[in-house]
Amino acid sequence: MAPAPWAVPAAAPGDDRFLDYVRELTQPDGAQNAAVDVRAVTVDPATAGAGRVEDPWVSRHVVGQNDALAVVRDYLARGETFRSALRTAVVVEEFIAADVSAQVVSGVHETFEEEVAMVRTAHGVCVGGTDRAGPADTYLVRRSDLNILVEWIAEKHRQVVPTPSGLTERSLPAALRNRPCLTEEQIRDMVRIALAAEVEMGLPVRLELAWKEGAVYVLWCEAVG
User: Fold this and answer.
1) What angle do the packed helices 16-25 and 65-80 form, to 10 degrees?
2) Which residue, among 209, 219, 222, 225, has the nearest Cα to 100 in the 3D structure?
3) Which of 31, 168, 192, 215 makes the best surface tag, with the fewest CB within 10 Å?
4) pLDDT digits (tens, 9 = 90+) for 53-84
5) How much is the CA Rg of the chain, to the nearest whole Å?
6) pLDDT in tens, 15-41
7) SS3 letters for 18-42?
8) 52/39 Cα distance (integer angstroms)
9) How far is CA 205 from CA 38, 60, 91, 167, 178, in A?
10) Reported pTM
11) Partners of 137 in the β-ladder
């Protein structure tokens, strides 16, 4: 699992300590500048962090200190424009060049007597879950025993991949187009993570995850109840 990202609620645009963290995370890795993901979310403190006011602002694969600092300062400045009763958190995390991206919702309302979680997976890096990648494999998993009740394998034709100049779409190799992105055990592993996060947060959650070389990274978690 990826290390916990840094977040600063209601940070001022001149918060040098937080900006120092960003500089540290984006230090050159060998001959290349490191890449990060930057998110900002505005919440109402009265909801104990569970009431997102609007969709997060997300910038993926931001390369180098200068660009990362510019995005962070922009998001912090945007947060200053909201009413004083609201708070803005900016999160900066290591960019993961995912082989497969996934989104998990720990509890969904479906026409089953059992309580189920939903999992969607797609090849490559996905912005905001799996939407940008187009069709995604979809699973409904029974929460009580992690039995997969529904499995729909999409015909997938493209993936989003990182390049030195940013993210770009490429054709997916023909051999992968009609195959599941992940194994059934990997699907269950992600539901286990989502259920554990739900216990911690006290509400159903939505998770974004990335699989790279067989390891899973939690990129984002939010309450959706």
Assistant:
1) 150
2) 209
3) 31
4) 567 788 888 888 889 999 988 888 877 765 55
5) 18
6) 678 888 888 888 877 667 888 899 888
7) HHHHHHHHCCCECCECCEEEEEEEE
8) 13
9) 20, 22, 18, 27, 29
10) 0.82
11) 121
